[in-house]
Design goal:
By secondary structure, this protein is α/β, with parallel strands linked by helices. The strands form seven sheets. It has a seven-stranded antiparallel sheet, with helices on both faces. A seven-stranded mixed sheet has the order 17-18-21-20-19-23-22, sandwiched between helices. Strands 32-31-28-29-30-33-34 form a seven-stranded antiparallel sheet, with helices on both faces. About 4% of the residues have low confidence.
Length: 1131
Amino acid sequence: MPKRTDIHSILILGAGPIVIGQAAEFDYSGTQAVKALRREGYRIILINSNPATVMTDPELADATYVEPLTIEIVEKIIAQERPDALLPTVGGQTALNLGVALAEQGVLARYGVQLIGASLRAMKVAEDRQLFKEAMLGAGLSVPRSGLAATVSEALTIAAEIGSFPLLIRPSFTLGGSGAAIAYDRDDFIEKMEFGLRESPVHACLVEESVLGWKEFELEVMRDHANNFVVVCSIENLDPMGVHTGDSITVAPAQTLTDKEYQRLRDQARLVMETVGVETGGSNVQFAVNPADGRVIIIEMNPRVSRSSALASKATGFPIAKIAALLAVGYTLDEIKNDITRETVAAFEPSIDYVVVKIPRWAFEKFANVDPTLGPQMKSVGEVMAIGRTFKEALLKGLRALEWKPTHLAPGALGDLAARLSAPTRERIFHTFSALRQGVDQAQIAAWTGFDPWFVAQMGQIVDLEQAIAHHTLTSLPAELLRQAKRFGLADQQIAALVAAEKTSKPTAHSPNTAWEGQQPQSGSWLQTPEQAVRALRKALGIMPTYQRVDTCAAEFEAYTPYLYGSYETQDEAPPSDRPKVIILGGGPNRIGQGIEFDYCCCHAAFALHDLGYETIMVNCNPETVSTDYDTSDRLYFEPLTLEDVLNIVERELGELPKPAAQTLIQGGVTQGSRDDSESTDTETQASGLRSGVIVQFGGQTPLNLARGLAEMGVPILGTSWNAIDLAEDRGRFGNLLAELDIPAPANGMATSVAEARRVARQIGYPVLVRPSYVLGGRAMAIVYDDDTLARLVQEAAQASEGRPILIDQYLEDAFEVDVDAVADGARVVIGGIMQHIEEAGVHSGDSACVLPPYKISYYHLSIMREYTEKLGLALGVRGLMNIQYAIKDDIVYVLEVNPRASRTVPFVSKATGVPLAKIAAQVMAGRSLAELRFTTEPPIDGFFVKEAVLPFRKFSGVDTLLGPEMRSTGEVMGHASHFGHAFAKAQMAAGERLPLAGTAFLSVNDFDKGSILKIARDLHRLGFTLLATRGTAATLVRAGLPAAPVNKVKEGSPHVVDLIKAGKIHLIINTPLGPTAFDDGKSIRTEAVRHGVPLITTLSAAQAAVNGIRALQGKEMRVRSLQEHYQRQG
């Protein structure tokens, strides 16, 4: 059936901010859907609140609304745009829930909008736990014994009927398993049930019998309205049931199913799709299989493009979201051509002759006292994917791509090992290797971990090979053993550790240099490392990687897309071209501090440089992102971002590198010994004049950490030189630069020990700010008030910065911060945007709300920042993007840090101004000047744009929510309007923190803020709020003539403020602690506020912004405007 001609315009719902359980994979799926449907001639209207996505680029859709994903806002857009159809199945659970609500509340019917992609019935049956259970039983499929509860008492009745603990609690209509938990006794059950009911948007939870320890499988499937059905990919979890699939290491295709077992799952998946009624898109079906008797039960299915769809698409080359979008407009699977083979159709099931492993990435180090145990509620913030010819190779490639390893794995008694291997934690895979090295029986390991014995045996083969290598020195290592090590996936650095030349440090079971190493050293020259010696030996023996294509058909048909993975085979499937080329290093796994914003920049670099005539080559290992879509760049290498893997690709694409010369390091100043990359040894293409090289500045800290090793090996780095990058990243050298330029910085000193840190802190005076070098997301940065805390935090900072000196800064209390994004070409610096933080200094820029343009900064201070930005850009020789963070206190503008690379705020500034900063910067790095690109002046801003952080505290019960200098947000949203109040209110709404328009406000501020709180309290009173306050704050308000009732602190006894929060009697909280004691006192308030969804504000500047937002909402209805319309009016 050809595409539908009765619809002409389609509204696509995005997924909103990056949150745990719903991340960058939906930017990827949404982007694919928009591109596919526009190519079919449909007018596409897009709504998403996330400015960091490629999806919200104004060039992608016909009308792009960066607005809150709420019913009232979407209805305004529908009324304005009048779309014919709504597609809610490519934006995750957020879009699906919103689509259901729009249909049920009559909005779609009121405007004549059709649902496409999935019917309302299909969405409700799949997502409503009770309806799904009944549908499965009616189809003759097995599900766990369960019951749906809307209250705790109903849940207890169901628990009694099931008969025994443990029990699984599964809230309805949630994402990432939010609120899901395993309860082991009655009291535990009641507490977790209360939380689950709060998390469910329909206030309902399924109480389910436990299948802990069963094997878990997932099938990614598609079905069309002609009943064509395909399994795109089978996925097997390494962890048994009880760990959310997003937190488990997963393997594709499934490795331990017999063909008969696979066919049984396939048949059941097809029956699930038919029963639920999904006939125009992709879904995933999750199964539990009892390893004892083979019993199969259905766990759940998603009637939409799922989180795993991105993994399955990248694993097979089968673009699920694109095909789902085409099915939604009437096509059938047999009418859609496969992009990779250009011969087969989408009804042809993919077949792959390699193995894919996905490994999650967690950020527990960001949250003190968090429970790191993995369970049914997802906790990971990102993931890596690795492709190998075998499970062993893919696993080891994935582990080194993860950029994380345990700091210490001590050997222990069997009892200790049993506890470590039985507990589902991020360390368990490493403990498994440790146990194998100690000679623990494989069957015992399988019993403790719940891993299938086949997987344990594969890991055992890796350990056996390690032991064989350890019998040799580098000079005695046989060529075939070295080749086998590379085919197993061992990195050069691992091999170097195993064959330590003089055998002075024999690897042990708990050595850190075992099966997960692969990163370059952070100090000293890479040229003198044992890793380089192994590399040299490999090259001398001709043991070099080959690259194979991802082809969807196990090489049965030719693959036309150069989508590649590395291995050590005898034949290569994709020889490089002789075109001028740029290799773009991506950001690796998403994590707090390095997220989708950097992927956005990498994509823009690929788009811009392709248009200049380059062959663009992307290197990344993140399956969630647009950068790893096979049509983003001309060539894609799905490989770990380690120095070894990147050098292999660089040498293959750019040819043999020149013999490395001795490097001259900059000592203190700006240019001593530095190399001007604009006149570097980049490969020249005579015919075009285009320079080939590598971009390391767009993917965040991951590629920056490779810059030194690449430069030492003679790799041509485009744009800002490695010397300039190091000068800005090294805290000590950067301080010297600021002194040379006569630019103020907070009083500071460097420390390499606790004693030095204490000496510096006493000279500066507490409080101080601890700042490690070469970290992302403010890792291990902290405000310190005393010697004892300093000692502990300095040790943590030293570990985070891998032994580099630590900067101890004066902490500028009550200052406010400003971010500036700019582009420089070596001769000119042009500011892209100046953003004022709404929170005061001390909150990481990634966690602070900010506004563009600044609304409370004088022209005098703005002119100083513009002057300093130009001086620093020119002094550093920046060619490309740069970001500078300033603080203003007592009329002095201080520079806090400079990042001569892409920043998290580049997408936000680009969406606000309409100027694609990353594209401009990429062209500058390729040799164009800003004058040639006609970007010579700071762009004007019409209205206000507010960026707000989205924090994951609801996923981590009991964690203190107080913000500080270490970043903890997972994503961001944007609100824009003509007035600041409306823009701020929209940003809060988009972040899920809707400002109350009435009710009771609780105020508790420190002594320094008591004078300033008066205006805010008076405004709240005039807006109709009842005021409650702690006794000290209440006394201040009453003396000023404000009606404020006192309420007890927690330590003063009930009824206290936490009691009122739990009872739903407080609707807004303003709490500004000062000093360590106050921080601890307010923790219970902050914890309960998050748990019960009460807006919590911890700085007065944010409180004033909230008042402005409330006033705007009370006074005038919000309006919506597409980015395209905004730029038209602005321009």
